[in-house]
Amino acid sequence: MGSTVTSTAPTTADLMEAVAAVGAAYFQDFAAAAARHGLNSSQAKALKAVQEPVPMRALAGRLGCDASNVTGIVDRLEALGLAHREAAAADRRVKIVAITEQGRTVLGRIRDDMTRAQDAFASLDDEQRVTLDSLCRQVLPLLLGQ
Amino acid sequence: MGSTVTSTAPTTADLMEAVAAVGAAYFQDFAAAAARHGLNSSQAKALKAVQEPVPMRALAGRLGCDASNVTGIVDRLEALGLAHREAAAADRRVKIVAITEQGRTVLGRIRDDMTRAQDAFASLDDEQRVTLDSLCRQVLPLLLGQ
DNA sequence: TATTGTTATACTCTATAACTATA
DNA sequence: TATAGTTATAGAGTATAACAATA
After folding, report:
1. Which strand C nucleotides have any atom less than 7 A from protein CB atoms?
2. Is it the case that residue B64 has pLDDT exceeding 70?
3. Of A79, A81, B83, B134, which is most buried by a Cβ count within 10 Å?
4. Where do the domains of chain B lie, and which CATH numbers do they carry?
């Protein structure tokens, strides 16, 4: 990478605002794409999370919500045929949620429908991609707390 | 800037996920900082939006919510002494919301309290700052739609 | 007649607590 | 006794519709 700074370095507050704006726009795009397939944000996030089978309680952890909410979220995915519950062999209390073929199809369509985000990130060249990726990797651990 | 790509360029989907994760962590930090000052995310966002005086209806537009919600949000800011309503001189139907000195103080404290985000973005060097800033400026217009 | 801000109301999402069936 | 999943319930946040005041 080059070492010259081509314009005045923005303040920490500026960077925070800019990244927040990009993140907010991304989530709007994601929610809109999910809604076109009959899912709200939580349900679509859950569908992404069960690409490998996940127990109900672990799914609650990934979604950052209480376990009681997961029942309704997975009910909706099952009603649409996008995921199903399986009894766990080792512990009969546990139910494991797994995505269906139809679920994978819908997940792919949601990704394709995120046209704004697709356009935005697809417009970056290889060098910009590497830079943005490494910046995210550097910033994220600090943002998620020590 | 240099022109060498130092590692494999990530896919568009990878970049979307990475930026989304950074954005989500930022908003968690923001909400937690606001809560320490008795405000929820919407109220804190409104406080930021009224640093210059804004009519109620325009504020609804900035917050991306229905005008009926703004009444309660501004009620809360007024109850805490962080903002106040002023009658508009030109049109007596309009009420203009303005931040108070105390509001500016609290807004500054919320920013200071965003320790995770502060640490994360303060860790970047000048070249990284310029790069991230320019990437956000490039990506944001596309994300916000044509 | 249209618009601003407000109120009343219903809906959605989430969390808490109690329950069951397993362990 | 503790844990996984579920159910019932309450709370917060938001949107819709109706209203008074003003344009």
Report:
1. 3-8, 12-18, 21-23
2. yes
3. B83
4. 28-113 (1.10.10.10)
